[in-house]
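Design request, tokens follow.
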């Protein structure tokens, strides 16, 4: 099977990390990643030119997030992923669970809203269209946990355990579409949970943690199911090229282990980010309350003391 227009996956030598990381670009993802980095850089430069600050940490997170997408789509990991279930699972887990978290920590929507110019009165520009999309009914639906959690789970079970996966793997557009789907599902799942960019669904911190842990166990169960299987579960990987020198069940077992491990790692990263955001939110709230108390002479405290005094007099 020819993949991405470079080389035959049937002639790949046995997998090593060095071979997997060789540059082998998929033009769709290469152009997409370069465009994303270019637009983000333009936004940061525009803010700097007018004297506005933009956290360096956000730029680093976004850049690393985009580079992780390029890592699994523009190297020979993409070629090996067509014939090795374990390598494909690395692609899937990175692009659906690691890349979205890093990209979202870069706050690209917030940057766009600050960098894009405001359209003139009576006209609609890119910034106005973005705001309209953020407040649309469509966005409310796809960022609601009633949609994101089932979609997150279906991307595993409904894809790999039905003929849909083999159909998508049968063509280059199908494979690209599947990878884009993984990325988008990760973005809409983690977006309301991370809470960096504005969005229509913004629950409290406890609810965000519950949403996070509602989806993760299914990744673990999926991985365990692959590891315990006594026969190949996915038709596309039942007959790997002899040049790879791999055993199908051993490779499938490795794929299951990767899926299981990735149910833990992103959870820890997101949990750390949530606790950090929660702490700083409480700090900002305390500062606002102190400022309000300074302005009104702490009337709220005086009213409370007066209430206590009235209780004692009774």
């Amino acid at each position: 099977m020819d993949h991405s227009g470079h080389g035959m996956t049937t002639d790949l030598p046995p997998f090593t990390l060095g071979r997997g990381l060789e540059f082998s670009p998929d033009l769709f993802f290469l152009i997409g990643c370069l465009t994303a980095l270019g637009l983000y850089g333009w936004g940061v430069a525009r803010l700097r030119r007018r004297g506005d600050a933009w956290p360096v940490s956000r730029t680093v997170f976004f850049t690393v997030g985009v580079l992780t997408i390029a890592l699994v789509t523009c190297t020979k990991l993409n070629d090996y992923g067509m014939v090795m279930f374990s390598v494909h699972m690395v692609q899937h887990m990175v692009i659906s669970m690691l890349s979205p978290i890093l990209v979202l920590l870069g706050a690209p929507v917030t940057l766009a809203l600050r960098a894009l110019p405001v359209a003139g009165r009576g006209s609609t520009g890119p910034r106005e269209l973005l705001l309209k999309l953020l407040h649309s009914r469509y966005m409310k639906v796809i960022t609601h946990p009633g949609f994101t959690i089932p979609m997150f789970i279906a991307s595993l079970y409904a894809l790999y355990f039905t003929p849909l996966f083999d159909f998508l793997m049968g063509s280059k557009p199908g494979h690209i579409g599947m990878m884009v789907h993984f990325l988008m599902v990760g973005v809409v799942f983690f977006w309301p949970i991370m809470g960096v960019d504005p969005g229509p669904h913004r629950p409290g911190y406890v609810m965000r943690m519950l949403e996070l842990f509602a989806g993760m166990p299914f990744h673990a169960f999926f991985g365990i199911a692959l590891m315990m299987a006594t026969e190949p579960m996915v038709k596309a990987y039942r007959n790997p090229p002899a040049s790879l020198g791999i055993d199908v069940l051993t490779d499938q077992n490795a794929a299951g282990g990767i899926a299981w491990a990735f149910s833990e790692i992103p959870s820890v990263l997101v949990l750390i980010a949530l606790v950090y955001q929660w702490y700083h939110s409480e700090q900002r709230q305390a500062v606002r309350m102190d400022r309000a108390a300074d302005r009104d002479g702490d009337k709220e405290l005086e009213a409370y003391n007066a209430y206590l005094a009235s209780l004692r007099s009774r």
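Comment from the thread starter after seeing the answer: thanks! Residues 1-7 have pLDDT under 50 and may be disordered.
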